[in-house]
């Protein structure tokens, strides 16, 4: 038990150090130099762009997000908002905005075809109408900073990429939510190295709902959204589809370009992750049980410290507590997370464990996923999954 306790502390610290190393490999999309953003010669070099935003019951957030895009100074771009079966005021809001802005188009979907997830179908329909040489897929609650589209496109062209996933600045609504999201962020940093994403020989692919930018000519070499029509983790699925089609892919920090308030609280976060978190298990009960067992195993490791002498146990426990705080403090300077959220990292992982356990339990209790008024059975989800974890 003593050996288990010591090994647990070492593994815990190594994971945080690995997350720190990966985080510092990420490039940050640079901001334009003030005064140079409106140069005619620079604007002429930018290709045409279509921004596609699917929305289902986003009346509370969509207008501010839309206005942040309509205020962009990108020289040649169009916006396509897709109202995916909303029953709030989403449709009315985007129609009013479209009447005031000629470069904004609206699509209203009233019926979801069998065998499609709503968001993926909305993206598919909008892509068929898009005219841009580049396509930017984003969510209806994402706000763009001034000049963001120019900065994002300039970075993609400079890097010579066909697909760019951008990680936004997150604005948690409460400390508890920030702690949970910081734990989620640290987990992502642990597993996702931008060097691996950029390596065409490496199967690791990444996507981001806030910013998935693709070169249309490269996208047209893929099977298209029909291939992803039942993939619940569609953002990463898009990155995987691009990479498998030999596209050049990149992931970068876009915190200076876009932001969103990811969920209004823990309850909404739990509800939001009902759809895609069970996909991490491949919809396998055994995989789900294995992932859920990690938390009891961590407690077992912590219990192993009790078999050591008091001084050694306190020292190791102090190391385990200080490591995420030191690493988190280093990362927090470049993120929207406070050092406190990383100091409370163990609580964050406990919250994520309960959210995941709830999602998996509901999946097996219901025999599938209920999402946006449609039920998707387990067999249907397994058949449509494209990402193999």
Overview of the molecule:
The structure is a single chain. With 389 residues, the protein is of the alpha/beta class. The chain folds into 2 domains: 2-23 and 267-384, no CATH class; 40-175 and 191-264, Spore Coat Polysaccharide Biosynthesis Protein SpsA, Chain A (Alpha-Beta Complex), CATH 3.90.550.10. The protein is 50% helix and 14% strand. It contains 17 helices and 12 strands. It has helices at residues 2-23, 40-44, 62-70, 90-100, 118-129, 148-159, 175-191, 194-198, 216-219, 234-244, 266-276, 285-292, 294-304, 310-332, 339-343, 345-366, 378-384, and strands at residues 49-55, 77-84, 104-109, 134-137, 142-144, 163-167, 169-170, 212-215, 249-253, 258-260, 368-371, 374-377. The strands form 3 sheets. It has a 7-stranded mixed beta sheet with strand order 3-2-1-4-8-6-9, sandwiched between helices. Strands 5-10-7 form a 3-stranded mixed beta sheet. The longest helix has 23 residues, at 310-332. The two termini are 31 Å apart. The model has no long low-confidence stretch (mean pLDDT 90).
